[in-house]
Amino acid sequence: PAVMNSQPQTGRRPMELALTFLQIALLSFGGGLSAHAFNILVEKKCWLGREEFLSFLAISRLLPGANMVNLAVCIGNRCGGAGGAVAAVAGLLLVPLLLVLLLGLLYFHYQYLPGVQSVLHGMAAVAVGLTLSMGLKTLAEYRTGIWPLLLIGLVFLSTAILRWSMFWVLLLLLPAALGWSYFSLRRSDGHD
Length: 192
Fold this sequence. Notes:
With 192 residues, this protein is mainly α.
């Protein structure tokens, strides 16, 4: 019997990267891009491991610019070098840009119709659900320890309840998260 390869795959062709990121972009109306990217890149195509995807996602959110463009650059570069990064960004942006321009024209022309507002409210609810789904999938990996749950709770409290700026949340909680990660890696490598 064939043994399934659990290692992430590299060496993707630019067209394959562009089409994959186009698929992610077109399936993610109203948001939820990172949830779709996780589903397609980690669960379906196995191009990346869970940890690697989450690391790229964290880096993408810390860097200036659009999170998903940053993520496309990271993953495109990882899977196909500089050409892969360009292809992933092009796949993510070109066709959706044309669609957004077309939908924007239609919206400004028909925005007063009651059905248009209902559709937009429904799409927003779907986007929230997709984001929550990805959060719950990634939370399952960290629910065994008190420190990750405490950090998650503090981030939620400071951003959602107290409405702190992301700058202050990162400034205060990033050192604790990096410290927890460092000691967890040392413990798992047997360097107690």
